[in-house]
Amino acid sequence: MDAHAHRKDEHVFIAEKFYQENSTNGLEKIKLVPATIPELSLDEIDLSSQLAGKNIAVPFFINAMTGGSPQTDKINQKLATVAAKTGLALATGSQSVALKSETYATGFRKLRSFAPKNLLIGNLGADHPLENCQKAIEMFAADALEIHLNVAQELVMPEGDRSFYWLDNLKNLNQNLRTPLIIKEVGGGISPLILPKLAEIGIKYVDLSGKGGTNFIAIENERRKAKEYDFLTYFGLTTAETLILARPFSNDFSFTASGGIKTALEIIKCLVLGADNVGISGHFLHLLLHEGEEALIAHIEALKEQLAAIMLLLGCKNVTELKQAPYLLTPDLLSYAQQAATNFNRHS
């Protein structure tokens, strides 16, 4: 096994080592207001939404995790099986290792056979040229392609990149790929400063990917002998902060929320704050590794039921109505939102 594939296994091992039962994504600072007399019945609730311009039955999906080594390919195949049985969309981890060797592409190529009818999403870094992106899409007939922005991870990664000129490439990919692009962070939060630039080059789909879940700065620092990047562990924007900062741009993008999301209530809060869908990674991986496929399937089905129940409590029969639902912020997050409105408005 080469160094790239070995790193895939390391990421999964360290991510699970650092897994926390309680998220630090800031969503606890959003308070929802019950309808009390909702004038709705449970069978009127519609959970459907959109992801990368495509219809999805429920507003959450299995987000990017892994793949590219024998061990992680097995995880991906189990996740694809879960996706097939629950109807969820599935995003893979980075396919860069698969572009280096056909040996490591094999696992990705098999994914479609495990989830033939599901929305499947590929994944590459923002430095990959058009040709690579086309190969990644063809690898399992991907319905969309995630392009991840991971400057902090690369800087802390011992063998990571040190040069980051991406905008021209993103523009080229967006103009020339027929498959929708989703621009995403990897757990540090999309900066509001970059959203106008993404809108300018025609990007429509953005995964805000805030802090609060899998922490790639901590993972890469763990791989360093001296662990000298501890000071960056909490660098970035939480899931709640990214959603608030993104609200002024809601007409320009369809947002995915991700970052430490575990419960139906957290999913609903993300939708109330403007997301069209929610990506879940570490939580699903933890359940799969510790309890198996059937337990993860049962958990996903329970989430669907719980989402409908919460929507009824809020008096909202669909995701569009959720985006209009009232909410309250705790004083510290309210202050943050007010400062953001002043310092990061859409004309900045």
From TrEMBL:
Classification via PANTHER family: ISOPENTENYL-DIPHOSPHATE DELTA-ISOMERASE
Subunit relationships: Homooctamer. Dimer of tetramers.
Protein name: Isopentenyl-diphosphate delta-isomerase
Highest taxon in the source lineage: Bacteria
Record-linked Pfam families: FMN_dh
Alphabetical keyword list: Cytoplasm, Flavoprotein, FMN, Isomerase, Isoprene biosynthesis, Magnesium, Metal-binding, NADP
Chemical reaction(s) catalysed: isopentenyl diphosphate = dimethylallyl diphosphate
Subcellular location: Cytoplasm
EC number assigned by the record: 5.3.3.2
One function term, GO molecular function aspect: oxidoreductase activity
EC class (word): isomerase
Transmembrane feature ranges: none
Cofactor: Mg(2+); FMN; NADPH
Binding-site residues for Mg(2+), renumbered to this chain: E154
Function statement: Involved in the biosynthesis of isoprenoids. Catalyzes the 1,3-allylic rearrangement of the homoallylic substrate isopentenyl (IPP) to its allylic isomer, dimethylallyl diphosphate (DMAPP).
GO biological process: isoprenoid biosynthetic process
GO CC annotations, alphabetized: cytoplasm
Domain FMN-dependent dehydrogenase: 154-325
UniProt family annotation: Belongs to the IPP isomerase type 2 family.
Signal peptide positions on this chain: none
Residues that coordinate or bind FMN: A64, M65, T66, S94, N123, K184, S209, T214, G260, I261, K262, S281, G282
Native source species: Ligilactobacillus apodemi DSM 16634 = JCM 16172
Annotated residues for binding of substrate: R7, K8, Q153
